[in-house]
Amino acid sequence: MKLSADQIVQYQRDGFLVLEDFVDGASCDRLRARAEELVQEFDPQGVVSIFSTHEQNRTTDAYFLESGSEIRFFFEEHAFHPDGSLKQNKEQSINKIGHALHDLDPVFNQFSRARKIRELTASLGIEDPLLLQSMYIFKQPNIGGEVTCHQDGTFLYTEPVQIAGLWFALEKATLTNGCLWVLPGGHRLGLKSRWVRTDEGGMRFEVIDPEPFSEEQLVPLEVMKGTLIVLHGLLPHKSLANRSPKSRHAYTLHIIGGNSVYPASNWLQRLPATPLRGFD
Questions:
Q1: N or C: which end of the chain has fewer CB within 10 A?
Q2: Is residue 262, in this structure, part of any structural domain at all?
Q3: E strands within the chain?
Q4: Considering the entire predicted model, what is its pTM?
């Protein structure tokens, strides 16, 4: 799928695009079914990694930091009792799966390297595109965690900035179950901070511009199943907690320009045996 001239102008102006019916229902269901299989096969014994955007300034566990070349599972922050036991079954407790689904799982690989995604990426002007990171996000009923306002470039920085996030709605996303919120035109504000590795092996935020985002100007994107939201790497966006009885499944894919420099200080790193790949 090639973007029209008007869509490209809109993307450059607003920093995002909403493309309805980009994915057919059967493909959405195929990804959901595969994610459910992966969770069923996952043995959480001895592996408890909780994903929370409120704690990214703390030292992050190795299970997370070494997941760039793996398929790993991260729990919701509110999935556990005080004694460490799960409040409900693991299928209802996982926050997300990441971060190399697009390379290591055949179902997600086939989806991520579809011709229409390759054509879309070319329309965005990303040169020599590489598929960097993928995540299956569950946004579980009742306990789905908030994702605070951020820019993808903070965590997946390139020089020059050449990154796009593709957010596929596998279910209807509403105000009730935690849809995305975006700041139109906010990508033109520049990068606010970087999340970088420390010499001690942890992570820290490196502040570039301390002026906070104007979150009162964020607008919600309520979308139907099958919609693709394209996000510029510098666009501020967030999602609220899901306290509704309905989940909000989504699949995300981040693509960078192969001609850009991807620093070793970024949190997500690939092992030499699993280099980044394009749409081959």
A1: C
A2: no
A3: 16-19, 71-75, 94-99, 129-137, 147-150, 163-169, 180-182, 193-197, 203-207, 219-221, 228-232, 237-239, 250-257
A4: 0.94
CATH number, residue 95: 2.60.120.620
Interatomic CA distance for residues 241 and 141, integer angstroms: 10
Rounded CA gap, 36 and 128, in Å? 33
CA distance 185 to 193: 18
What is the Cα–Cα distance from 213 to 95, expressed in whole angstroms? Answer: 25
59-92 pLDDT per residue, tens: 458 889 999 999 999 999 888 888 878 888 999 9
Domain count along the chain: 1
The residue segments making up the domain with residue 237 are 5-257
User: What would the two tokens of residue 214 be?
Assistant: 């104007």
Q: Which residues contact 132 (CB under 8 A, 6 or more apart)?
A: 156, 163, 254, 255, 256, 262, 268, 276
The amino acid that residue 31 corresponds to is L
Tokens of 163: 């990154």
**CA end-to-end span of the chain, whole Å?**
17
Interacting residues of 147 by C-beta distance below 8 A, sequence separation 6+: 53, 238, 239
